[in-house]
Amino acid sequence: MSTNTPVSSISVSAIVEVNMADKYFEDQMDDEEVLYVAHKHPIVMRKGLVFAMLGPLIGILPATFRPELGFGWFFGGLGAGILLGYLIFLPSWIKWHFSVIVVTNKRFIQIIQKGFFNRAVNDLALNLIQSTNYRVEGVEQSIFGFGTITIQTFMGDVELHHVHHPAKTVRKIQEIIRDNGITPVSYQPKRESNLDETEAEAISELE
User: Fold this and answer.
1) What is the spatial distance between Cα 111 and Cα 177, in angstroms, rounded to a whole number?
2) Residue 82 belongs to what domain range?
3) Looking at the chain, which terminus has fewer C-beta neighbours within 10 angstroms, N or C?
4) Are both 120 and 169 inside the same structural domain?
5) Where are the beta strands (DSSP E) in 31-143?
6) Of 1, 4, 16, whose CA–CA distance to 165 is shortest?
7) Residue 134 CA neighbour count, 13 Å, CB half
8) In this predicted model, what pLDDT tens digit does every residue of 144-184 receive, in sequence order?
9) The model's pTM
10) What is the pLDDT of residues 21-73, one digit of tens each?
């Protein structure tokens, strides 16, 4: 009987809470627990979907302009067009499916899939996060429920675009930081080194 906690999803947002015995990603540490995983909003695949819909249309063109070819050409072309549409849509789906936000009990990780063989990974310790904010701009983002999350650190800001339900995601990140007792590191500007007493006395004697 498995003791793993079941994966629970929130609506259609592709946001899940995970408690896994096995490693979720390649460089996951042995004592690191994945607490939260989120995909981008599926709307990022819209361009690929639009072009994929042209596949079936292209497939039935021969039978449309030459009806004497018969139903064999029509349905055969339709099947080939659907396959073509699938191949056109596949790169967009791969980019969406493998681009994820992962929050563990130690780190915040953003994985961005840029193609079949290109992947970028941003890794940030949770104690470096100073604040998390989000914004929803325009009619499209308001209707479909996605926006941009900004994570502020002393090293710079990290922006996450097309995040589904950004308010829920921000709240979840804040809960993980709070529940794990993580305190953000305080900024300590570099100070000019002060002369010790011996050096100060030597300088005063010279004067």
Assistant:
1) 20
2) 47-93
3) N
4) yes
5) 34-39, 100-104, 107-113, 119-125, 131-135
6) 16
7) 23
8) 999 999 998 877 888 889 998 899 999 999 999 888 887 77
9) 0.67
10) 466 677 777 788 888 998 899 999 999 889 888 888 888 777 777 777 777 77
